[in-house]
Hints:
The complex is a heterodimer. By secondary structure, chain A is of the alpha+beta class. Chain A has helices at residues 3-11, 23-37, 40-53, 98-107, 132-139, 183-186; strands spanning 78-82, 88-92, 112-114, 125-126, 146-148, 157-165, 171-180. Chain A has two domains: 3-53, no CATH class; 78-186, no CATH class. In chain A, the strands form two sheets. Chain A has a four-stranded mixed beta sheet. In chain A, strands 1-2-5 form a three-stranded antiparallel beta sheet, covered by helices on one side. Chain A is extended. Residues 41-74 of chain A have low confidence and may be disordered. Chain B contains ten helices and one strand; from the N terminus they run H-H-H-H-E-H-H-H-H-H-H. The longest helix of chain B is centred in the first third of the chain and has 22 residues, at 6-27. Chain B is globular and about 50 Å long.
Amino acid sequence: MNDDDLITLVREQRGSVEMTTPVDQIIGRGRTLRARRRLPGVAAGALAVAAAAVLAVTALLPAGHQAGRPLPAQLTAWTVTRHADGTITVTVRQLRDPQGLQRTLRADGVPASVTFFGHEPRACQRYPRMSAALMAEVFGGHGPPLVIHPKALPHGVGVQLNPMHHPHGAPIALAAGLVQASPGCTGP
Amino acid sequence: MGANRPDFAEFYRRSKDECLFTVLLSVGDRDTAQELLAEAFARAWASWRTVSRHPAPAAWVVRTALNAHVSRWRRHRREVPLADPGAIADRPTAGEAFDSPVDPRIMAALLRLPERQRQVVALRLFLDLDTARTAAALGIAPGTVQAHLGRAIAALRADLMPERQKEIPS
C-alpha cells in the first residue's frame, strides 16, 4: 500500500457519517439569525452574557480542600463531601468509577449524570435557560474543588459532569454543566 | 439575493457530510458535531452573499462550528482541572467514543495525531482544499501545511500498517 492508497483509505471514512438535518431547517434557522442581526440590542446583550460567563480556573488540586476538614487517609479517585450548609464538594483525582460518583451525588440529593468516557446519555438535554448567573449560583466559586449548591438548582434541573479534553486528546479538566433532569439522564 | 438561494442548497447537499466528519474529529460526539454544524450552516445561509465568495466556504463553515464549540464550553461549563490527568483508568478505544460507523482503527489513528496535523488532514483530505487554501484557513505557510501533511501521513502509516513498516529494510 503506497501513500495514495493510505490517503484513499482515510478519505473513505468521511462517507461513514451523514448529516441528517434537512436543508429547510437550516434555512429556517438562517432566517432567524438574519432577522436577529437587524436588532443590535439583542446582539450586544448576547455578547455581554458571553463575556460575563467566561470562567477562569485558577488553582490546582488538591489545594482546595475545605479548611478544618481532615484529608482522606487514602487518596481515592474522587471524593464527595456534604457540608453542613448543604453544599457539596466534589474532588476528582482520576477518571475512575463514574457510576459510583453518579450514585453518590444522587444519594446526596443532586440529580446527576456523570460520564468520564464515551457519550453523554442521549436522554440528557441541555438546560435551555442556562446563564452565567445561574452557573455561579449552582457551582459557586471557581474551584477546584468543584462546589455544588443543590438548593440553587431550579426545579427539574440536574448536573452533568464530564471531562474536558485538551485539543491533543488527553482529558485535563472536569466540566460541569446543567441539564434538564429526567430518569434517563439524571436518574429517578 | 433570491429567497431560495439554490446555490446554498446545493452547497449544503454537497459538503454537509464531509463537514460533519471534520467537526466530529474535533468534538468527538456526533450529536454535538451535528448541532454545531447545523448552526454554522445556518450562519452561512444568513451571510451567504459573503460566504459564497469565500475561497473555501466549507472551511468557513467548519471553522465557525469549531469556534462555536469553544464558546459553548466557556459559556456552559464550569471547568475544574484534574489532579492527575495522566492517571486515567479504563480509557476506551476510539471506536467506543464514537457512535458512528467509522473504522475504529482509522479513527483512533486520526485522533492520535497532534491537533495541527489533524486540522491539516481534515482540510486537505476531507474537505479537499488545496495547500494554499488550507494554509489560508489555518493561518500558516503553505510549506508548513505540506510538512504537517507529510508527518501526518507518516504517522498514520506507522499506526495503521506497523507490520509493513517492519518489512521495509532499513
